[in-house]
């Protein structure tokens, strides 16, 4: 099945957005910390997503556990094992919708971080422990039927205060500026199913470099696939910036030395950070 926005997309803007300033923090990327839940994908889309997630190939090649085996991740399925999921998260209308929520242009960071799925384990009290996803934004969508008890997402600010987000309804999403916020996913109660899918996003503007890292992804990924995608993504960002700078120089017919040197310094720092993540 191919992703069709006419039948698979049902976006409506969130009713509210919590500002990052309410956490005593600031961000150069976006003024929002997280959104309230908003509809994103239809039940028909979720049926196909669940079919791909539950396929034997995904469970054979993409299943990862944390150190104590209490948390399970399905990741690295895109694009080869989950073409529908890949097409959904990369579709221009989906990116337009999520960018409108963030207030800045977004694009998936790498294929490895598209469609990561968390499935609640038997007798677990949490689905994913405290962590800070090291990418600019994270979109979380609920694949399970509506959860009546439990299933919340907890967010902690830098002063230790906790904020509780009710679990989104099936097909609803929450967008979080994940690089700045600690979060944890609580298990649903009474044995109810809790399956969520998340995709990490970076900024589509090549002039804005992010400070993403691989510290969480590294132990849960195939190193060769992860590092290859990481390098292509970072080089692509630099390539687009260089193209933009070349166009500016060509149009003006001169070089702004101060601006040029600043751009070179930024690129040098970005390359160094890229290199340091390859371990």
Q: How does this structure look, described?
A:
With 279 residues, this protein is an alpha+beta fold. The chain has two domains: 5-205, Jelly Rolls (Sandwich), CATH 2.60.120; 227-276. The protein has seven helices and 14 strands. The chain has helices at residues 5-8, 43-53, 56-61, 83-90, 92-102, 223-252, 257-276, and strands at residues 17-19, 32-35, 38-39, 63-65, 72-74, 106-108, 116-119, 126-131, 137-142, 153-156, 162-165, 172-176, 182-186, 195-203. The strands form three sheets. Strands 3, 4, 5, 6, 7, 9, 12 and 14 form an eight-stranded antiparallel beta sheet that branches. Strands 8-13-10-11 form a four-stranded antiparallel beta sheet, with no helix packed on it. Strand 10 (153-156) and strand 11 (162-165) form a beta hairpin. Helix 6 runs antiparallel to helix 7. The protein starts with a helix and ends with a helix. The relative contact order is 0.15. The mean pLDDT is 90.
Largest sheet: 8 strands, antiparallel
> Average pLDDT value?
90
Which segments are poorly predicted (pLDDT under 50) over 5 or more consecutive residues? none
Secondary structure class reads alpha+beta
Could you tell me how far the N terminus lies from the C terminus, measured between alpha carbons in angstroms?
38 Å
The CATH level-2 architecture of the largest domain is identified as: Sandwich
CATH top level of the largest domain is: Mainly Beta
- SSE string, helix = H, strand = E? HEEEHHEEHHEEEEEEEEEHH
Structural features:
Jelly Rolls, 14 strands, alpha+beta, 4-stranded antiparallel β-sheet, 8-stranded antiparallel β-sheet, 279 residues
């Amino acid at each position: 099945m191919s992703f069709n926005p006419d039948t698979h997309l049902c976006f409506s803007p969130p009713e509210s957005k919590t500002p990052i300033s309410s956490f005593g923090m600031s961000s150069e990327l976006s003024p929002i910390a997280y959104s309230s839940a908003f509809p994103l994908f239809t039940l028909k889309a979720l049926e196909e997503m669940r079919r791909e997630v539950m396929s034997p190939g995904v469970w054979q090649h993409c299943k990862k556990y944390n150190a104590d085996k209490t948390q399970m991740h399905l990741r690295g399925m895109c694009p080869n094992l989950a073409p529908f999921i890949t097409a959904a998260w990369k579709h221009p209308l989906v990116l337009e919708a999520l960018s409108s929520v963030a207030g800045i242009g977004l694009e998936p960071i790498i294929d490895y971080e598209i469609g990561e799925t968390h499935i609640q384990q038997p007798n677990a009290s949490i689905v994913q422990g405290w962590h800070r996803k090291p990418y600019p934004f994270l979109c979380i969508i609920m694949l399970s039927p509506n959860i009546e008890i439990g299933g919340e997402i907890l967010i902690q600010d830098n002063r230790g205060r906790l904020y509780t987000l009710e679990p989104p309804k099936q097909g609803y999403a929450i967008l979080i500026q994940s690089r700045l916020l600690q979060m944890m996913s609580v298990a649903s109660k009474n044995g109810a199913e809790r399956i969520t899918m998340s995709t990490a996003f970076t900024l589509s503007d090549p002039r804005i470099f992010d400070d993403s890292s691989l510290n969480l992804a590294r132990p849960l990924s195939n190193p060769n696939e992860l590092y290859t995608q990481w390098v292509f993504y970072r080089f692509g960002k630099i390539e687009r910036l260089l193209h933009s700078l070349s166009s500016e120089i060509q149009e003006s017919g001169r070089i702004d030395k101060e601006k040029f040197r600043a751009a070179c310094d930024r690129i040098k720092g970005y390359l160094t950070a890229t290199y340091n993540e390859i371990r």
